[in-house]
Write a structure and sequence with these properties.
It is a single chain. With 482 residues, the protein is an alpha/beta fold. The chain has three domains: 114 residues, Fumarate Reductase Iron-sulfur Protein, Chain B, domain 2 (Orthogonal Bundle); 170 residues, FAD/NAD(P)-binding domain (3-Layer(bba) Sandwich); 131 residues, FAD/NAD(P)-binding domain (3-Layer(bba) Sandwich). The protein is 36% helix and 17% strand. The chain is built from 19 helices and 15 strands. Helix 13 packs across helix 15 and helix 15 packs parallel to helix 16. The longest helix is centred in the C-terminal third of the chain and has 29 residues. It comes from Sandaracinobacteroides saxicola. Keywords: 4Fe-4S, Iron, Iron-sulfur, Metal-binding, Oxidoreductase. GO terms for molecular function: 4 iron, 4 sulfur cluster binding; metal ion binding; oxidoreductase activity.
């Protein structure tokens, strides 16, 4: 017999947390959605069908126990719901905010397929974890007995590195995290705007790791402050979790003009300003969209972050060009809807032909209409230009948001010895994430290429287990030899 608290999807309509008004949210960088109230979280959780094959769980990279913690939430057992959510994820409230649920758990919800509207999984995940912080249910790290002084060095304080650091510290290892930035968090801190992820949410996670005994070395760049070999000598194992930060370029005339900037430079500046930092390139107007005609090239989530940031900075106009149509864009459809609500104009099936300049500065974009042709090897239809379809629009701040590639690991990490792929990412074993160098592992975007935060968390979890097994085997061999 079905539980009386569940299967209410035929009686209760789908409801997401209410958004702040468009005029209000365009004035600041606070998150746009109001939090669920308790009654609403319980009500929406009760819509779960508790299906025999939970496709939401199957399609979550972390394989979170979603139906189980939805049931606990519907029953008002909120601390248990949080603990079950936390059992598979080191940062559920972050994933609840920034995961593209419409492509993952919610997009594969059984009642979504039946036309009743998906359970609002991400909003419930955010609610129960934020409540856990408020109520003191989030426990400090409690390391096991010391692992004989074995230490781990982690290069990169993004989601993969932080996740691995947490799991390894709990197992009793001494953990040192090295990052080039002055704050930990990677793209969570400097790449994702506050209207999607307010920064105190990231900083409290970092503080918990610091209080748990994890050592952070910030403003520390491998290749400048230490070589990979020096870190290998310093630690019993090393994890490379640097992510990919090199912006893909637009190969058109005028691409090197003033006013043409990489997306990450623009977003980092905006986030630093949000922290209260003095950012000269923002102060002098180079990376400030105020009173400018902004054109963003690209169709992923980074492009959506840029257009919505430009709105909040007071741009005169904001336009996004994407070479495929809306149905084939890689970014979240919810983010596109949010951007449209906030006044962003989208020109689908379009690509830049050149950036028009005056005295060395960009003043306009000359574009061309595209159409979708035959599918490529990945199965996606390739865009091709429409003849005689050129157009021009004003643009004196042009932001390139075409994705990211790996930086020069060969130069920074001694790539002659560290095996790399032809894309410049680290070559790692598919099962263990071990590299060709003994005791050196890699995880996250530096292995996968630019991907989702939830996949970085998953690989951070997986690589921590692989590193633990390897370190334990090394210690056992030393004891046996003694």
């Amino acid at each position: 017999m079905a539980d009386s608290q569940m299967l209410k999807f035929t009686q209760v309509d789908q409801a997401y947390p209410a958004k702040r008004t468009i005029s209000a949210r365009a004035e600041d960088f606070l998150e746009i959605a109001r939090p669920f109230i308790l009654a609403k979280a319980e009500e929406q959780s009760s819509r779960c069908s508790q299906c025999g094959v939970p496709f939401c769980q199957v399609h979550c990279p972390l394989h979170n126990h979603i139906p189980d913690w939805l049931k606990l939430t519907a029953e008002g057992r909120l601390q248990e719901a949080y603990e079950l959510s936390n059992a598979t994820s080191t940062m559920p409230e972050i994933c609840g905010r920034i995961c593209p649920q419409d492509r993952l758990c919610e997009g594969n919800c059984v009642i979504e397929q039946s036309g009743h509207g998906a359970v609002t999984i991400g909003s419930v995940e955010k609610f129960i974890t934020d409540l856990a912080w408020e109520e003191g249910w989030v426990q400090p790290l409690r390391p096991l007995a010391d692992r004989g002084g074995q230490s781990v060095g982690i290069i990169g304080a993004g989601p993969a590195g932080l996740t691995a650091a947490e799991y390894l510290r709990v197992k009793g290892y001494t953990v040192h995290v090295y990052d080039r930035h002055d704050r930990a968090g990677g793209l969570l801190t400097y790449g994702i705007p506050g209207f999607k992820l307010e920064k105190h949410v990231v900083m409290r996670r970092v503080q918990r790791l610091q209080e748990g005994g994890i050592h952070f070395h910030l403003g520390y760049e491998v290749g400048r402050d230490a070589t990979l070999e020096e870190l290998r000598e310093r630690h019993d194992a090393v994890l490379i979790a640097t992510g990919v930060y090199r912006a893909r370029d637009v190969e058109v005339a005028g691409a090197d003009a003033d006013g043409v900037v990489p997306a990450l430079d623009y977003l980092i500046a905006a986030n630093r300003v949000g922290f209260g930092d003095d950012v000269p390139a923002f102060r002098n107007g180079t990376l400030d969209a105020a009173d400018r005609d902004v054109v963003v090239i690209g169709g992923g989530d980074t492009a959506m972050d840029c257009v919505r940031t430009a709105v909040r900075q007071g741009a005169s106009s904001v336009t996004c060009l994407y070479r495929r149509d809306r149905a084939n864009m890689p970014g979240s459809q919810r983010e596109v809807m949010n951007a449209e609500e906030e006044g962003v104009r989208f020109i689908w099936l379009s690509a830049p032909e050149a950036f028009v300049t005056h005295d060395g500065a960009a003043v306009a974009v000359r574009g061309r209409r595209m159409r979708l042709g035959a599918a490529d090897a990945s199965g996606r239809r390739m865009p091709e230009p429409e003849p005689e379809s050129d157009f021009q629009l004003n643009g004196n701040l042009i932001i390139k948001a075409l994705g990211f590639d790996a930086e020069d690991l060969a130069g920074d990490f001694g790539g002659a010895r560290l095996a790399l792929t032809r894309w410049g990412t680290v070559r790692a074993d598919g099962a263990t994430l071990a590299t060709n160098l003994p005791g050196v592992f890699a995880a996250g975007d530096i292995v996968r290429g630019a991907s989702l935060v939830v996949w970085a968390v998953r690989e951070g979890r997986d690589v921590a287990q692989s590193m633990h097994k390897w370190l334990a085997s090394q210690q056992a061999a030393l004891l046996q030899a003694a």
